[in-house]
Amino acid sequence: MTAATAAQGPADVEVRDPVANAETSKARLPAPAAETSLTAVPASGSLATRYTSELARGIHADPAAITHGVATARYQTPLRYPGSKTGLAPVIGQLLSDASRNRSVRGVELLVEPFAGGASTSLRLVGDGTVRRVLLADADPLVAAFWQVAASETDALIARMRAEHEQYIAPGAAGAVQRWDYWRAWSPPSGARPSTARFETAVKCLFLNRTTFSGILHGRAGPIGGRTQTSDYSIGCRFNPDALADRVAYVGHLYDTGRLIDVWCMDWRDTLDNTASVYKTLVPDQVVAYLDPPYLRKSAKLYNTSFDQEVRAPRTVPAPAGWPNTLAHEQLARHLTGKMRYRWILSYDYHPELLGSCLLYGRDRMNPADDARAEGVRQWRISKRIVRLTYTAAARSSRAAADELLLTTLPPSTVPTNDLIRAITASP
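Below the sequence we write its predicted C-alpha cells.
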C-alpha cells in the first residue's frame, strides 16, 4: 500500500456536515488490514502520510495500458494552479522524447515532479506515452492530500464533489459564498482519524481551487465573482462537475494501471533524495526529475508552502540585486548542480540573475564535490534554453506572454533549438 492509499473507516469524531456525511461509493482500493504493519513518514504538520512498506509499488512490473479518454483530451488535471504552464508540457515532452532515442537514456521509465501543484505536465506526458510512469510530490498538505485521495479514493471523491456542487454551488449566491467561507476556515477536528482528515482536506483543496480567483488556495484571494456575486463570472464558473469527474477518474485510472506510482507529501529535497534511494535501479538515466519551483517574487502570495519556509541554512552571501530572498533558490541550485545522481529538467520564470551567478545557474556543467563524485554524481553539461510562454501569474487581469528559462542535464545533443526553443550560447 503506497502513499496514495488511505485507510477507510468511520472517524473518531463526527464530521458535522450533511454533505460530508452523505453516502458515497466505496474507494476503489481496499483498506489495509488492521494488522498490516506500515511505516508512516509524515511531512512536518502534514495530513498526508507516505507509507513505505511497498514504496516501490509496480516498478518491477509492466504497467497496464491507459484506456481513459482524458489521456488525449485538451486538459488532464482537475486543479487550476496559479501560473499554470500547460503550454510548456509539449516542450518538456519533446525534450524527453528526443533524449529517449539517445543510447544512454533508452526511454524514461519514471518522471518525478517534486513541485507537483496541478501536475499538468506529468498527467499529459504519462497519458501520451512519453514517459512510462510518474511520481508526484508536494510539500503543501492540501495539494498532496488531494492527489492521494484522487488516486486511491476516486469514486468517493467524485461523489462528494458532485454533492458539494449540487447543494452549494448550483444554487449560487450567498449559500455558495458561505460554503466557500466554511472551507476557507475549515481544519481537521481534534481526534479525527487521519484517513477522514485526509479525505476532507482533499475536498477542501478541490472546492477552493475551483471557486477561488486563479485557483489560489492560500493567502488573500477571494471567491470568484466577489463576495456579492455581482460579477459576470460567478463562483461556480470554473466548477464543472462532469469535466471534473472525468479528470479525477483519470487520476484513479493512472493509479490503478500502475502509471501513477505514488504521491508523497514532502519537500523537494526529500523527494529527490528518496527517489534516488527507492528507485536506484533507474539511476542515473531512466529517471528524470522535472522541477517547476515557485515564482521568485510571487511565491509567498500564491503558495502556502513556499521556498522560504524550507530554508535549512543561513545565508552566507548577499542576495543578487532585486531579489528579496533567494536563499532557497540557491539551495535548490546547489543540490541540482552538485548532488543530483540522475537527470533533471528545471523551468523558471526567466530572470537574467539566474544565469549570472555561480550560486545559481551561471555554470555550464554540474560541479559536484569529490565526495559526491564518489557516490556517482556526474559532471553533466547543463543545456540552457529560453521558451516564450503565455501564463497567468505574470499579470493580474489577463494572461501574459513571458520568457521561460529551461535548464536540463539530458544529453546535450538531444536538446533541440528551434523557433520556439531559443538557445543561450553563453551565460551573461
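The first strand starts at residue 40 and ends at 42.
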